[in-house]
Every structure is written in C-alpha cells, then in structure tokens.
Amino acid sequence: MEEFESIESKACGVSSFHPKASVKKIILSHLIDLFIFLIIYCVLVLTIFTSPLISFGETLILLILFLLIQSFFILNLKVTFGQKLFHLINQTKSNFPYFTIHEQSQNSFVKSALSYSFLSMITFTCFVLFNFLFSHPYLSAVTTTHLSKKSLASSENNKWIMLPFFYTLGAWPKEYRGRPVLFSLPYEKGPPKKFAGHIFAHWNETQTQITLEGPKTSVSIKNINEIKKCFENETPNLACADIREKVLSRHLLEMKNELNILAPWKIKTKWLEVNHKKSSKKNQPQGVYLSANQLNHYQDRFILFNSSGTQQAIILDRKDPNDLKIPLELFQQTLYQLSVFSELKPGRAWIDRALAKTQMETNQTHPSPLESIKQLAEAQAKLIAKISVDPKSLNSYFHLGGTALMIAQKSFEIRNQKQQKLTPQVDSLLHHWSVVSKPLVFTAYRYAKDVDINHSNTTRLQNIWIESQKY
Fold first, then answer.
1. CB-side exposure of 324: number of CA atoms within 13 Å?
2. CA-CA distances (angstroms) from residue 166 to 112, 240, 371, 381, 389?
3. How far is CA 168 from CA 197, 278, 306, in A?
4. Is 418 a residue whose pLDDT tops 50?
5. Angle at Cα 127 formed by Cα 124 and Cα 129, nearest 5°?
C-alpha cells in the first residue's frame, strides 16, 4: 500500500485517510489556546502591576494578537497546543481556505483522558482568573478602619512639635529614642511655582524614615465620599476601577520596586479614617492605607485626601527587624494628631507665628553640644515646614542653608574632640547628621537660585555652601 501513498499527503504529514476534525473538537482546541493566552496575559499583568480591566480597544488588540500567534503556530509548526491536545493537525492547501484541520486516530482511553484534562484546565483557569481579578487592589473591596484615641498604644514620646506640611497641620515627634529627628529636603524641580516633591524625617538614621510627598491631583472627583464609595464597593464599575487605578497605580509600582513585591495582592489595602475632636469632620484625615513587607523592609503608606480631592502621601519605612513596633505606633499617633485643610492659610499662619518666636542661637558656647544640635534640628524642621506651605519664601531657603551648616559644624566638632571618646553608635549618629545636613545646604542654594538668582541672599547661600565643604 505504501507505494500508492500520495506524495502531497506525505509531505504534509497527514494521510488522506485521516478524516476531517469535528467542529466540536476544533472549537474546544481554540478554547484551550485562548485559556493559555489568558493565563500568560494575567502573568504579565501581575508582573507590570497594570489594571486587569481593559477597554474595548485593548480587547480588540489582544484578540488580534491572539489570532496572529495562532497563525504563527499553524504556518510554522502545523499545529497549536490545543490542537495537539486533541490530536488534530493542519493540512495546507494551495487554494482558499489555505488549510484544513484533520483528526488523527486515537483510542477511547485517550479521548477520556483528553476530556478530563480539558475540564481540569477550565476549572483551574477559572479559579486563577477569579482570584486574580477580585483580589487585585483595583477591584477588591476594602474595609474601613477608624483610628481613634482608644485604638492607639500609649505614647512613650512626649516631645512633639506642631508643624504644617503642605495641606496638613499636626504634632510631629521632635525626638526618637532620645535623639533629635532631622528633617531634610532633596532638590527637585518644583518651587517656587509648585510644591516641593518630598520631605524626609529621619527617625533612626537610615533604618526608620518618614517621607512626606507633595500634593498631587490624580482624579477629577472633588467629593471625597465618592472616592471612598469606589474603594468600599464590592462590585466596582469601570468608572470606579479607573479612579482606583489613578489613585493607586503610582504607589503600587513604587512599592513593587522598593520592596521587590511580585504580586499586587500582597499589598494590603484599607480605607483609614481618623476620628478626633480637635477639628471638624471635614478636616479629619481619611484616605487609602497601604501596607506591605518583603524580607526586612516594611512600608506603610497613607494616601490622604482633603475636602477638595487633592491627595498627599505620608510613608513610613522600617528596615530594622528589632525596631518595628514602636515606629508604627508613633506613626499612627502622628496621623491621629493631624488635621487636613483645603487651603494653605492655616498652615502658613501657624508656622509664621512659630518662626517669629524662634530665637536663632548663634553663640557657639552652648553648655551641651548635643542640646545645641537639638535646637538647630527644631529650627530646621520649622523652616522646611515653612517651605512646604510657601515655596516662594527666599528667606526660608537662606536660613535653612545656614541652619544645616551649623548642624554639620557641630557634628564635626563633636566627632573631632580629642578629650572625648565617642562610642561607635554616637559616632555613627553624628556622621549621619553630617551626611543629612551638608547636602541640604546645596539644596537650599539651588532652590534659592530658582526663586531669585540675583538676590544677595542667594549669593550668600553660595558662600555658605562652599563653607560646608570643609565639614
């Protein structure tokens, strides 16, 4: 019989005796290919932390991509994965349609095995897709947590300072474990026309740090209650999913990169409301609270909204495995004491009064050098707070540069005292203060140039920056 076999059928790998495949098996094979494509798509979505919901245009693009991939397999390998599973193969032809699907012989046991495999794959795929979709931060409903005085742990830190940062006003720790908290301000394009991008509060050198982000408007909705409903809704519509994506996308990507998180659902999401009697309901902070950890890096983010819909974030980073509980409790106490406003006037009025009362000590003969650094750190915090609510204030940058220089000088003097031996911990702390303060002088100088490059204080700041290089 082999001598009568068709050359064409042999070249194509399909015998002329192989019957054409049934429509049912062809459809099932395409569904298998589609499920595999969707699983790969979900993995990619997880990897790049994008929204699982897609528009009509994106759906059309994915469908075209799926058909192109299938065509590639058919033209180059003569079979797709789904067709291979059902023992189907494509036979090419010279006229339209350019290929036909044939069924290869198989016994009843294989048929049963294929059926069970198909059902198992459908079940597994549906389970994965369901859990993926409804556990994603863009879709999953969040619970509301109320931060009240009863829910706070007792505070061991009784040294606080009232400071405004952007649209917030509240008490911030002056010290952490007996050491002064230094605030720093990196240079970023923004002032004087826009807010400063970030402000850092160094609680425990490089191990524990607070980051205050400048205000941003990511959504057009001004009513905070509508934003809250979108996060609490168990079955969010496309509009709510879009709002969630605009609020969370940047933060999720930053947490993914900073913590090396592989899946969005590892980031816990909730809606946080602060309940205190210090201010009216509209001035009490509320917003999205994100938390996650990877290895020894723990991060908590509070994305709060004012009554106008403007958002700003306060971030706590903890990297010391032996110092995790106290920073979180202190962070929650700080959030509890905050008030949020829709304008900058309350913060400006407060910090102007505070700076008017501040006496800048220029005498170098303080009885305690450490106490002198504490006073300078407090003045530095007030100046940075002033810049956050009034980025056009050239005098604030000038005094900030001078204060940072004095902290660098004091730290250098203490570290180089021959008659006093410092412990490694104290020496490391003084080095950290110098590392934080010296770049702050240059930051103040660069911001001053952006405000008014020809002002005399800008020239004086340049000299202060040159002086700081000695330390």
1. 12
2. 67, 27, 29, 13, 5
3. 15, 13, 9
4. yes
5. 105
**Of 20, 153, 166, which is closest to residue 91 (Cα–Cα)?**
20
Question: How confident is the model over 423-450, as pLDDT tens digits?
Answer: 777 778 888 888 888 999 999 999 999 9
Give the other-Cβ count within 10 Å of 270's Cβ: 13
Would the pLDDT of 14 be above 70?
no
pLDDT value for 339 = 92
Q: Which of 230, 217, 241 is nearest to 288 (CA)?
A: 230
Joined together, the tokens standing for residue 103 give 């069924």
Q: Residue 393: what residue type?
A: S
> Token pair of 32, please?
């298998």
CA 72/CA 43 separation, integer angstroms = 22
- CATH for 344-471? 1.25.40
Q: How many CA atoms lie within 13 A of 139 on its CB side?
A: 17
CB 242 within 8 A of CB 270: no
Specify which residues 101 forms β-bridges with.
90
pLDDT tens digit sequence for 22-73? 777 788 788 888 888 887 777 777 666 676 767 677 788 888 888 888 888 8
pLDDT digits (tens, 9 = 90+) for 292-321: 998 889 999 999 988 888 889 999 999 988
Q: How far apart are CA 273 and CA 154, in angstroms?
A: 20
| Domain chopping of the chain, boundaries | 2-135, 144-342, 344-471
193, exposed or middle or buried, with CB in 10 Å at 0-12, 13-18, 19+? exposed
For 144-342, which CATH class?
alpha beta
**Higher-pLDDT residue of 471, 351:** 351
Please count the other Cβ atoms lying within 10 Å of the Cβ belonging to residue 180.
23
Q: How far is CA 92 from CA 12, 26, 315, in A?
A: 7, 16, 61
What is the number of alpha carbons within 13 Å of residue 176 lying toward its C-beta? 24
